[in-house]
Amino acid sequence: MSITKTSVIVAVMLASAAAWAQSAPKPTDPQIAHIAYTADNIDINSGKLALQKSKNKDVIAFANDMVRDHTAVNEQALALLKKLNVQPQDNDTSRALSKQAEADMKKLSALQGTAFDKAYAEHEVAYHRTVNDALRTTLIPSASNGELKSLLSTGLKLFEGHQQHAEQLVKEVK
User: Which CATH code, of 1.10.10.60, 1.10.510.10, 1.20.1260.10, 3.40.50.280, is assigned to 3-10+27-172?
Assistant: First the structure.
């Protein structure tokens, strides 16, 4: 199965999970924090893999942006949680994200050269689209704390830019 088909399947699975989450009880702020932190770590790890494997300057620049930006967001989130004296709470959504990330990383790790670059770029489009949709439809509306809601909203703006950048990268990587 090609990585493009895999990315589409992952996006559909995550969208289905997001739809299920909307019918499930509203996530709590500690659960939201864990989901967001997990999602950021997944993209940090994908970026680090791209930095190890890619020779394409555009892919490397994008991966550096992902590592830098997602690390910064996680640092802000951890500082906020410390200020609020809140512990992130593991949950089914964050566990499902981690499990899917392991499978994605395994597939990406097996690729080389342009095949890796193209698959990584496509993965980043699908991943950011899914995370942005979850932020927009579930996580931000469910957040109770105004500061957490604000941080998630700021992250969404940044991650929408990441999605657009990844979409451009897909067109450039041949």
Answer: 1.20.1260.10
